[in-house]
Each structure stands twice: as structure tokens, then as C-alpha cells.
Amino acid sequence: MADFQVEWLTLHRRTYNGEIPAATWRIKRGDKVNLHLNNTLTEPEKLQPFNGFRFTNSTNIHTHGLHISSKEPEDNIFVHLKPGQSFDYKYKIDPENPSGTYWYHTHLHGSSLFQVHSGMAGMIIVDDVQHETPEHLWKVSCPVHCEHDIQLVFQPILEYRNLFGNGFSTLQMRMQDNPLFWHTNTISSGGTLAQWLTRNIYLYTVNGQVNPVVVMPTGQTKRFRMVNAGGTIFLAVMIYDMSDQVTDGCSVLEIANDGIYLDKAAFPKSGRTFIVPSGKVDWLVVCNKPGTYKVRSLYHQSDFASTGRIQLFNDTMFTINVTGLPTNTKLQTKLPKRVFFVGDFRGVPQCDVKDRFVVEAGHWFHLNREKFKSHDYYRYNSEVNQLQEWYFINTDTDLGHPIHMHINHFQVISYNKYTGGYGVATLGTNDLVYFTKDRERCYYQHLNYTGRENVTQPANPFRYFDHDIRYKETNGSALGYSEVGIFKDTLLIPPQANITVRFLTHKYTGEVVIHCHLLSHEDSGMLMTTYISEPGTQIKTHTKSGNAYPGTCNKTDVFPFHNFPPCKEERDYVHEYYHGNNHGHEHTYGHNYGPEYGHSYGYGYEPAYGQEYSYGSGYGQPHGYEQSTGHEQQYNQKNGGGNAYTLLFGSDEENDGLNDENLDYFNELKREDFLRRLKQDSVFDPSLLF
In a 3-state reduction of DSSP, which class is residue 408? Predict the structure, then answer.
């Protein structure tokens, strides 16, 4: 415990080394980081029921967003340090971990919200590498130019007002915290200080201060690293003048989300940068006009159509004081190229996706229709180094849920039509029922379903419907939607949404934790584990809940949502168009792969076998190959110094050398060899091969 002063208020808080926020870790790829975590908190701590608020004084630590092993002694969140215990974490920072902004925080199931909102969190920076970083960005970034690298840790440690039941004094009561830390002293206006705080105080701190001032000269570009280091509140931030109007005095471009660089720097589509609880966003900022500005979180009632009911902060975060003469500095948009396992998976054919699974957020703290049971109750098993396509859905009719995945970032592929049912639960009971669009009980329910459940249906369960349509109509600019193509580790799933994501299970085997980052939900059971295994390893999984796969409702529903053709059929389908009976004339064909935002392929045909193919990905990754005899194809990845690879195929007059045997060889080579060979390139686009 430590006393921490915020203006006139003395806080009695659990902290790391007595600091709020805790110290920033600056690390490099390939570093070995040794951390001795000593729990000096003391007994007693009340033992509350499982999947509830408990363990006030037990703790651990989680490196949020790092591409790292979940096995001890690294990022295992099931390490449980009781009062007086210690643990030695030994982290091996991946030599390919993307340079960027991350954070660390306590993550013991049952006390995550309480301890994070106490202040147990800090920033992690994985340093940029000079030869990979454009000069304009290098000049405003650590490790060399830290004077322009502004670290901003946003913490809701003054969230006392009891919205959603998460006011800090209320948490202390629910956790049965020691009354000495409660602000139980009587004040002159009557009642206790804790009661007054609960009625009046609802603030974020920035680097431990309320509304601090950042001083900047005109024309000097700065890098803002922002972390929403909390577990309840969403932010929608932008720079405004002092009358809360959008200003042209300062320019802002987003450059990274959840630690991963964007394709290029861009102004946020919604006009505000949306940061979920746990989210990380980096800005480039320049102010060309002297004056005083504010960075504030601002939301409108209309925003909830695309987010569902969430807790949005609506106040100033910090102030910017700009001094000097007017200038005209422009922000540049070039960003570092991404490493291959966070490259671009939008164009990969369905045939090359290894696994398809569903993560279903639900009513009253259910994930895949159950609450957390144990760390080894695995819902799915995936093989390491394989492409995954998962569908994040939300059967809740009211709340948006930010779903976080440990170890691997995932790419947002599409917002899809929602076809499932909706769940209704009764708080404090096990009563949970899924209903169809016709408001009848679904055929598929869940493990604990008896048919005798007593639930009350909402008056309008479909008020947040049609996110796929809204996404298209707004071009993804509605607040809360993530732009298709970016990588995330935490994604808001609005009520009755269906979102496709893809990721590579790169390198690390072991447990993968997936949970809602509304930490009161996580502590209450909205957490599950999956497993990444070596090929051929048998892992016991619990994919169904009772008779139900996640996402299913009607008896005819398919898991997971789509009937994809077998690989051979898909190959033949594509093969027919560009190796069919069209050799005597020019032919161009475009085909979209993927649920909605697939990749377009255009092939131009010339007479006879001396064909020349022109391929354009549409995502900034031009590739080309020539085929002169049907025996040899050379693929050239032109991404600023990429390599050329040659694949040899046997001759087959009927299908130009691409018979089924060779197609199998082609894919085997791709999976086992091509990934390895392309790793030396700075950007990986698997669709190069198709």
C-alpha cells in the first residue's frame, strides 16, 4: 500500500513500487527482461465466491499486447501470488515483436478491476529500429529522441461515481477491503468522504495528474503514446480549442493501434480517436498556431448506435499550451513496414485458412455460453504457425463488449450480417435463455439449460441490429467500429454484431487467454482459454456448451456460419477461370475471396501458352509472375527489396502443368517453406501465391 497525493486528495492505493502510474519499461526486441515481483500486501483478505470480486491482496502481472509466451516464467496470468509471496518473471522479448506502445497491469482473476483501478499499471515501449523507421518518425521517437516522445497513461483511478456499479468506493465495499483505506472520515457537509466522492468525482488522471499541461513550441512534431489503462471506460479523444470546437491550430494523425503500425498515418475516420479499455493509440501531432488547446474525450448520443451501451468518458484529459510564432509544418504519412505475422491476411483464399472458430460474447458475463471454469478447460485447439479465421459475435442485446486476445494480434477482416439469436439472463442466477429473431426459444441452448429458466425478454432486443449495413453506409466511420485491415489485440463487439478476424498462430504454443476487457465482466467469469499446440498434438477441448456450438440457434445453423468448399473444389473453381479453354483470346476475371472484403484477382490472358499474368492486390502489395512454358513460374514480391522465388511444376498439357498433385505440392511448399523463406522480407502477403 502507498499514499498517493492527487491535488488535495490523499489516496490509499495498491501500487507497483508506490507509483501511479508505474514506471515505463523501455525494451528492445530480443531483450531478456528479469522481473522480481514481490507481494508486500498483507493479510487478511476476504475469500469471495469464484467468478466474483475477491483476492484484494493477491496479485500477478500481465504484459498486455506483447507477442510472447504464455508459459511460466513468462506471461502466465494464472500465477497467483498470495500476500508475502514473490515470483521471478523471465521474459524473452521476441526478436520480431513489433516496435510500439504496450502496457502491463495486474491480471489475477477476481481482482483485476480493483487493482488496475487502484493504479497498478504502467507503459511498455518496444523501441523502434532506425533502419526500419522513416526519418520523420525516428526524429520524434525513443530511444534517441525521447524529448519529443510524449507518454500518456490514462487511468480511471478517480472513477468514484458509481456508474455501472464500478465506483471505487463501491468496489472497496464489494471487495471487503480494509476500512482504513475507505475514506470513512466524516466531512463538514455531512456523511463520509467516501460518500461525497461517490456522488461527485468522476475523473481520469493522466500520468497521475488531473488535467496536466503539455507545453509545445509551434511547428514541432510530437509523438503522443496513449494508453487507456483501465477496465471500464471508453475514450473518444481529439484536440479542441477551449470552447470545445474542432481546431485547425493543431493537426493529428493516427500512426499505430494496439502497438501495431497502420499502413500509413491517417486522421481518424470518426473525427475522434476511439480507445477501448486497454487500448493503445499513437498520434503524430503538430500545432502551427500558438494558443491553449485541450485534449478531451467527447461523445454524442448518436454514437451508441454503433457501440451499444458502453461507459464513455466526456471531459478534458489534458491541456496543450503552444508557444511561438505561427508555422506551416505538415505531418508526414509514411510508416514502418510491418513484420510478416502482422502483414495483411485479407487476400488469403479460404482454402488456406486452417481453423475457423467463434468467440461469442453474451449476457451477464458469459463467453461461449459459459463462465470461466479453469485455465485448462480449453474451448479450442489450434496448431502453431497456421492461419486462423475467427468470428467475434455478441448475443447481448444491450452491452458492447471489448474482447481481448493474449499473445497474437488479429486483423479485422469484415463486419458481417448477424444471423444468430440473442441471449437473456437473470442476474444472480444461472438462468440464461437464447431466443430466435421470432422471439422463440432457440433449439441450441447451453450446458446448464434445463427449460425451466425464468427470464424476462427486453422490449426491443433488436435496437442495435444491422452493424454490417451501418458499417457500409458510414464507410466504417461510426464511432466504435474498427477500420477493416488494422490489427488489434482488443476489439469492441457491439450488440448483435458479427466480425471476422484473421491471425497467424505464430511461434508460441500454450494457453491463450481470451476475455472481455470490461474487467468487472472478466472478474465475474467472462474469460476462457484456448490452446495452440504443435502439429499432431491431441488437446482435450470443450467446443460445445451442452448441445450448442457458439453462434448457433436454429436446428439448421452451421458452425461456424459458413459452408466453405473443400480445398480441391476451391482450387478447381479458381483454376477453371485462369487455366480453362480461353487460350485463344484475352480474358479478364475478378474474384473476391473472403466473407465480404475479399481480395480481387485480375488475370490478363494472351493466346497460346506464353501467358503473362498481371496481378494487383489492391492493398499496396503489387506482385507479378510470368509463365512462358507451363513448367516454371517465378513469383516476384515487389515490396521495396523483396526476393524472387521460383516454383517448378510438372508438365500437364490438359491443365497447363497445374494438376491436383502439383497443386497439393504447391500448397505444401507454401505452408512449410514459403513462410520461412519470406520472413526475411519486411512485409508478408500470403496471397502472393494465388
Answer: coil
The strand pairing partners of 364, in sequence order, are: none
Give CA–CA dist 422/438, Å, rounded.
11
Residue 241 neighbours by CB distance under 10 Å: 16
Regarding whether 371 and 261 lie in a shared domain, the answer is no
Instruction: Pick 675 or 657 by higher pLDDT.
Output: 675
Kindly state whether residues 242 and 351 are assigned to the same domain: no
Give 314's Cβ-side CA count (13 Å radius): 7
Which of 485, 517, 533 is the last residue before a domain boundary? 533
CA–CA distance, 211 with 209 (Å, rounded to integer): 6
What are the beta bridge partners of residue 131? none
Specify the CATH number for the domain of residue 303: 2.60.40.420
Calpha distance 256→59 (Å, rounded): 30
One domain, residues 287 and 351: no
What are residue 533's phi and psi, to 5 degrees? -125, 165
Domain that holds residue 264: 205-338
**d(Cα 160, Cα 118) in Å, to the nearest integer?**
11
57 near 41, Cβ under 8 Å? Answer: yes
* Amino acid at site 417: K
- Residue 188 in 3-state DSSP? coil
Mean pLDDT (whole number) for 441-458: 95
This prediction has a pTM of: 0.84
Distance CA 403, CA 393 (A): 10
Into how many domains does the chain fold? 3
Could you tell me the sign of the dihedral formed by the alpha carbons of 154, 155, 160, 161, in that order? positive
- Measured between alpha carbons, how far is 159 from 233 in angstroms, rounded to an integer? 9
3-state secondary structure 609-649: CCCEEEECCCCCCCEEEEECCCCEEEEEECCCCCCEEEEEC
For residues 246 and 347, membership in a common domain is answered with: no
For 217-243, what is the mean pLDDT? 98
pLDDT of residue 614: 30
> Are both 299 and 425 inside the same structural domain?
no
Query: Do residues 298 and 358 share a domain?
Result: no
Q: Which residues pair with 103 in a beta bridge?
A: 64, 123
Which position has the grid cell 499474368? 613
Q: Which residue has the cell 477501448?
A: 276
